[in-house]
Amino acid sequence: MNLGGLCQRQRLSLLGEKKPGAAFAIIASFADREFDNEKQKESSRMEDRDCFRQGGPMRFPLGLVLACGLLNTGWALAQQLEVAPPVPSQAGPSLAPPKYLADPPTLFWVRDESLTWWIQSAPLPPLVTTAPQGTPVIQAGVLGQEGTTTVFGTERANNESRCGIRYTLGMDLVPDKIDVEGYFLILNSQSHGFGLSSTGNPILARPFFNVLTNRPDAELIAFPGGLHGTVQAEASSSNLIGAGALARCALFDHPHLRVDLLGGYRFLRFDEGLDVREDLDLSIPGQTGSTTIGVHDSFVTHNEFHGGELGAETQFRGGPFTLSLLAKCALGDNHRETKINGSTTTTLPGELPVTIPGGLLAQPTNSGAHTDNAFSVIPELGLRLGWWLSPNIQLSAGYTVMWWTAVVRPGDQVDLRVNPSRVSVSQGGPQFPAFPNNDSTLWIQGLNLSVKFRF
In the chain, where are the structural domains located? Predict the structure, then answer.
């Protein structure tokens, strides 16, 4: 009988059924039967019991059993082995873009900003003075005289913080490469006022420099002995309005660093005013009733900038956080207009009021609308720290500072040199006050809180 062939067929059959344990039992049983048959055949011929124990037939079935046992054990181990999954690389952190900064497919985005900004305070000349009781009338309220104090002017007006808003709308033209945006901002207006009435105590006056005497002088508003008066002054500042359009082009774009080139158009507008009114009530001995005199000076300035703008913005990225640094500069034309108007209204007892052009500091020599255009520069720096709450919503806080050159402001247009005699002016006397057309650089700075949405 072919024992090897039978064992092989049994092994393949059982392995096909995936029962390696059963293969071992069957083959061991078959080997025992073959051993018994051989024992019966040999018993009749073997006389010595030692021959039976050491016979060759005993060694063959034992080797077969051992071979099948090893085969069974190897198969069981093979069934338990699994291919180990690949071990991820431990080379270091991935440089893939952070999840929050990987731009989703968006077309538009909008940023809503709340602004708390400051505008450089308005310069004011000395406009109202006072003097202690007992001061001679010729010295009362005159600048440089002992005891004279400025009660309105010389201080910086409208230097408190201003609230405002800025809206920016952007659109991606080429994703991650080129986009365009437009913005609009507005800051609220502000005013700084002063008002005081007196029947002579305290002394009130309006100082000026008398070009006829070539020395400081003053126009009295209230003085003991019959001159009563009221003075009101206000320095006002209108809304600061700005707008612009920019195109952005990515010069360098890395998962943790991006640099954009900016170019576009900028508009900025700012108006201010300075107004002084005085009302005098003069009692003249022997005259029934009193004479009233009203003097009004007004200075209004208007600045409107149009120009091109170039700059760059660098953005550092890390996780959901971004840090942006902005630097840009606008070059263009500042359209400037200064309006100066003055009037004096006199009402004698029993007569109708009579109004003539010219007040104290706004007279025909400098009154009117003065318009020109000047080259202006507006550099701007900005810093913004952002936090992406989700791929489409970002909160940020930042700081902005800018400078605006060649700006006209009301206080700078006041000329304290005055020819108090209108007759000499009309006859060719000293033409003062004059229009100085002074300008200065205005700074604007403040804090920004914003939320950005991507669609």
Answer: 3-80, 99-454
